[in-house]
Amino acid sequence: MGLRFMTNKLQPYAQLTLDGKTISVSPIRAVRVNRRLSGSTDELRFAMALNAGLDIAADALVSLEMGWADSGITVFTGTIVSLEYTLNEVHGIAHGSQKDLAQTRIDETFIDQNAGDVVKALADRAGLDTGIIDSGIQLPKYLAEGSLSLFEHLHLLARICGVDVFTDEDGKINFTKREAFTADYTYQYGINLMDARIRKSTPAISSIQVIPESPASQEGTQASSWFVKSSRDISATAGQGNIRRFSTALCTTKEAAQTAAKSYQRDIERRGIKGKIMVMGQPEANPGQVVELKDMPDQNTNGYYEISGVDHALDGISGFKTTLHLWGQA
What we know:
Among the domains are: 12-96, Phage tail proteins - horseshoe like beta roll fold (Roll); 100-176, Phage tail protein beta-alpha-beta fold, CATH 3.55.50.10; 207-265. 14% of the residues lie in helices and 44% in strands. The protein contains 4 helices and 21 strands. The protein has helices spanning 98-102, 115-125, 150-161, 254-271; strands at residues 12-18, 21-23, 28-36, 43-49, 61-68, 71-85, 89-95, 108-114, 130-133, 138-144, 164-167, 173-176, 185-188, 195-200, 207-212, 236-239, 243-248, 273-280, 290-294, 303-315, 319-328. The strands form 4 sheets. Strands 1, 2, 3, 4, 5, 6, 7, 13, 14, 18, 19, 20 and 21 form a 13-stranded mixed sheet that branches. β11 (164-167) and β12 form a beta hairpin.
């Protein structure tokens, strides 16, 4: 038995694995998975009947498969962080591997390494496996000091390098961006799109100028600093219009400043468009993929969007639905 639609034509599939013990969909009352491209920890919430006969450990390893009919794919991997019991149900919350980064702080200095090497080292300090790790900019020195968590350090490096930090379905940390923007999924109004909301706004800042911390950047990372009257020759600018200027110790060359300026400008562009759509359960959807909207009531909302977050929800009333959070393609 499982959660079924009244027509019996579509049968959602869900399977929880807790410390190696598998639970079919039958005792599961509801599950919800939230995953984001950057900025927050993956989360799983579930409600399950007490008659499942399981003694769940407070720190149990958990994975969830979701799909249709009799098979699914892994949509979440993590660890139980909270359990709440009622008279007939147990409600659990699990967090993805980002929580280990968020809970770990170190004081360590990295000399003459690229950002990707630092990210691999920080993930290793938290005991995590890595997936795709881009090299990023070269860092003459990087201080991973304890006022920030490792999670915050990774996002700081990602913002400068123009990449995103996220976990894949196996819980591995990725530090990369998608280069090829072709549609992974196409949704059409009146066919396979249940709901949509798209907001477009004009950012107050539309141009970024990054100034390397030391004018020595004109002569490379080994040069000594000297005073200059203007930073025009060493700064890097991306975009046009209202400008924001800033300097960062992570950029000590003009090339690094150019990477950072393009990264911040990319972030401004894609965050100028935000939205979300609801579709029938799409377990294959992952943050960082691309969707195309077609035949929308307003043609201005047709086009390509990057998936910034994925929410999967399954219960006995609404069935299996996926909400895709979107932002602009940049």
